[in-house]
Amino acid sequence: MDHVRLMQVFVAVVEAQGFAPAARKLDLSPASVTRAVVSLEEALGVTLLVRTTRSMRLTEAGSRYFEESRSILQQIEDLNATVADANATPKGSITVTAPVLFGRIAVMPIIVSFLKMHAEVQVTAHFSDRNLNLIDENIDVAVRIGQLPDSGMRSRQVGHVRHVLCASPEYLSSRGTPAHPAELTVHDVVVAAAMSPRLDWRFGPSQQPIQVKVRPRIVVSSNDAAIVAVSSGFGMARLLSYQIADEVAAGRLKIILEDFEEPPLPVHILHRESINGSARVRAFIDHLAEALRRLPLILD
């Protein structure tokens, strides 16, 4: 076998967590898979896998070689796809992730419109308020809200959303509308742990922040539940502008303390670093970016 093929076999063994399952995946005999890994180790002069009759584990060198090999093989696959698909219709699978409500409200309609244009594309969408690791979860494209950490990923900013405080007209009528963040200490507060896990809420510009320690009457794990609570007339919640756009438009919620809002949060499309992306992923990113920028939910 050539060296690239040996790398492919080694990566398959690690990902399948065994020689026999890797052999089935690659349509090879278990003996061929074993010989390939041994040949690779001999060529490198290091032990990549420590194996017994019942288990196997990566050595330190093996762990590093696995990560680098997987990256190289992905780059080869992307390059081949770029050349092959340069003038072809996008086809194949794309895996996408986004925050739960943003995925439902904004991303899913865009996925549907893309699939209607490209009949040979399939999409798997993971909507989660946890930032999934693109490499570990094998995700092609992510939508992220907030400042991005330093990483080896490419990104494209498509706009901003606001971090707002809201309450129902019914609640504000009965309890009054606060004129300053300090007044929140005498109001009922609903905390969405997914959105504001800390109880020290910050307001105002980053140069002169105002910090208020809130005492929540309700703590919920999802933004949906917080919206239900405040829309029902109970307390105030801190959410993102797109999450309550429908409730605000319908008059069920009002945004308050707008003069004390923090700077808007950026919205990015994030994708894995590679020499060349596949035609289907490039086409989807372009479609997603253009569609998101047109949404009224997204600020310039």
Largest sheet: 5 strands, mixed
General form: elongated
> How many angstroms separate the termini?
53 Å
Cα gyration radius (Å): 25 Å
Helical percent range?
Answer: 25-40%
From the coordinates shown, what is the CATH architecture of the largest domain? 3-Layer(aba) Sandwich
CATH superfamily of the largest domain: Periplasmic binding protein-like II
Task: Give, in spatial order, the strands making up the sheet with the most strands.
Answer: 4-3-5-14-6
Question: Uncertain segments of ≥5 residues (pLDDT<50)?
Answer: none
Provide the CATH topology of the largest domain: D-Maltodextrin-Binding Protein, domain 2
Record field, number of beta strands: 14
- Beta-strand level of the residues, as a percent range? 15-25%
CATH domain class name of the largest domain: Alpha Beta
The chain-level mean pLDDT equals: 89
SSE order, one letter for each helix or strand: HHHEEHEHEEEEHEEEEHEHEEH
Helix count, per DSSP? 9
Tell me the structural class.
alpha/beta
The total domain count is 3
GO molecular function, one term: DNA-binding transcription factor activity
Family: Belongs to the LysR transcriptional regulatory family.
InterPro entries: LysR-type_TF_proteobact-type, LysR_HTH_N, LysR_subst-bd, WH-like_DNA-bd_sf, WH_DNA-bd_sf
GO biological process, one term: DNA-templated transcription
